[in-house]
Amino acid sequence: MQFLVWYDDNAKTLVVDKIQAAIAAYVARFQLHPSLVLVNVADHIEMSNVTVLPRPNISPNTFWIGREDSADRAIA
User: Fold this and answer.
1) How far is CA 10 from CA 5, 35, 66, in A?
2) Strand (E) positions, 2-61?
3) Backbone phi, then psi, for 19, in 5-degree steps?
4) Closest of 43, 30, 42, 44 to residue 1, by C-alpha
5) Residue 29: enclosing H or E segment and its boundaries?
6) How many CB atoms lie under 10 A from the CB of residue 32?
7) How far is CA 57 from CA 60, 72, 74, in A?
8) Number of neighbours of residue 19 by Cβ within 10 angstroms
C-alpha cells in the first residue's frame, strides 16, 4: 500500500475540501484514484468516492491518502 500524507491546518477550510485537495495531489503524483483516507477521529466525515477511516493515532489536520488493494485486505 502506498500513501501520500497531506497536512492542512487552515481553520477556514472545510475537512471535505482538505480531503479533496489531498486526493487531487495523490492523483497528480501517482496517476491513480485513491480508495482510502485515514484521518484523525476529529476530522472524520463520510464521502461517497473514498472510504474514510478515523484513527486516533493520526494527528489532527493530517490525511493519509492511499489505495487498498485486494491483496492488502487479505493480509489484514
Assistant:
1) 16, 24, 22
2) 3-7, 36-39, 51-54
3) -70, -40
4) 30
5) helix 15-30
6) 11
7) 9, 20, 23
8) 23
pTM of the model: 0.86
- Distance between CA atoms of residues 29 and 50, nearest Å: 17
Tell me the three cell numbers of residue 30. 501517482
Identify the pLDDT of residue 68.
Answer: 82
Sheet-wide strand order for 62-66 = 3-7, 62-66, 36-39, 51-54
Model confidence pLDDT, tens digit, residues 36-75? 999 999 999 999 999 999 999 999 999 999 998 754 544 4
